[in-house]
Design goal:
This protein has about 300 residues and is an all-alpha fold. Helices cover about 70% and strands about 0% of the residues. The protein has a domain at about 90-260: MetI-like fold, CATH 1.10.3720. A two-stranded antiparallel sheet has the order 1-2. Helix 4 runs parallel beside helix 10 and helix 15 (about 260-270) packs antiparallel against helix 16 (about 275-300). The longest helix is centred in the N-terminal third of the chain and has 32 residues, at about 80-110.
Length: about 300
């Protein structure tokens, strides 16, 4: 009898809340119109125009002339283009391998209650506030072989001309990208680490698990979905980076750091071949989309469920 009365009381308490929310539905489509119009105007329309231009011959003056598949045929017969794709993938993969572990460790640390954590985190996030152009100019000055840091530490840098050889130039590009964008991914991991239920760590402590075991058996599994999101952002950003290469290496030495985005700039704005430049741009979009979809499919991210206990 008592159980029946209790259930009736719970149902009675729920009914007013249900009545209050009964008339509340999802926002109408009109709320999404401004964002939809912005996306269509500044993303879809330019992408369609680029796709159209990729089948034309145009030097920026007059009217584009239809060229069929000429741009695409030349594209895949161009050794510089094929090498630029390889370099883009290489720099992107190296960026992911460097930034991911650093971001995870720093993000988990920043999510804790260490002494002076807030002050140190604020200082660490300063590079994220700078533009890629400012960061590139800064590091180009610091790495100048005549007046920069290498000239004062020849025992470490040799002749100091890091940008004069392919391995050194690629290493600098990866380092500068990590220096600027690791704080962004750290911020993502910091928020995700703070969302991990503390009861999991408390249970692990009762079972005698130390800090290292807790990290590998609780923290990392709980950050799995965040890792996939972060890696997709790294892949897209790495394949489309441009200004860092433009300022630091200008594709050199020779074509050793001419990645696809920079080669697109050379074709379109230096050679005034906007048809070929548009073809490279469209190819980059396709490659970045395919890689992102593969990562999503292989990782099971498309079947992502909440990792919070009880949800």
């Amino acid at each position: 009898m008592t159980t029946t009365v209790t259930k009736a009381a719970v149902v009675a308490e729920r009914r007013p809340a249900q009545r209050r929310t009964a008339g509340v539905g999802r926002p109408g489509f009109a709320w999404a119109l401004p964002a939809t119009a912005f996306f269509v105007l500044f993303a879809v329309v330019p992408l369609v125009l680029v796709a159209v231009l990729s089948f034309t011959s145009w030097n920026g003056l007059g009217s584009p002339r239809f060229a069929g598949l000429d741009n695409w045929t030349k594209l895949f017969d161009d050794p510089v283009m094929l090498n630029s794709l390889w370099l883009s993938v290489l720099i992107t993969v190296l960026g992911v391998l460097v930034q991911t572990p650093l971001s995870i460790l720093l993000g988990v640390w920043a999510a804790g209650r260490q002494r002076n954590r807030a002050i140190l985190s604020a200082i660490y996030f300063v590079p994220l506030l700078l533009s890629a152009t400012a960061v590139s100019v800064l590091w180009r000055t610091l790495l100048d072989p005549n007046f920069g840091v290498p000239s004062q530490a020849k025992w470490l840098f040799g002749d100091g001309n890091l940008l004069g050889m392919q391995s050194g130039a690629i290493g600098v590009l990866v380092f500068v990208g990590a220096w600027q964008f690791t704080p962004f991914h750290t911020l993502i991991y910091q928020g995700a680490a703070r969302a991990i239920p503390q009861v999991l760590y408390q249970a692990a402590q009762i079972d005698g698990a130390g800090t290292v075991r807790q990290f590998f058996h609780i923290t990392l599994p709980q950050l799995r979905n965040t890792m996939i999101t972060s890696m997709i952002l790294m892949v897209v950003g790495g394949l489309t980076t441009f200004d860092t290469v433009l300022i630091l290496t200008q594709g050199g030495p020779g074509t050793d750091t001419t990645i696809s985005a920079y080669y697109m700039y050379q074709k379109a704005f230096k050679s005034f071949d906007f048809g070929a430049g548009s073809a490279i741009a469209l190819l980059l979009v396709v490659v970045a989309t395919v890689i992102s979809l593969v990562v999503v499919r292989v990782s099971g991210y498309d079947k992502m469920r909440s990792s919070v206990e009880g949800l």
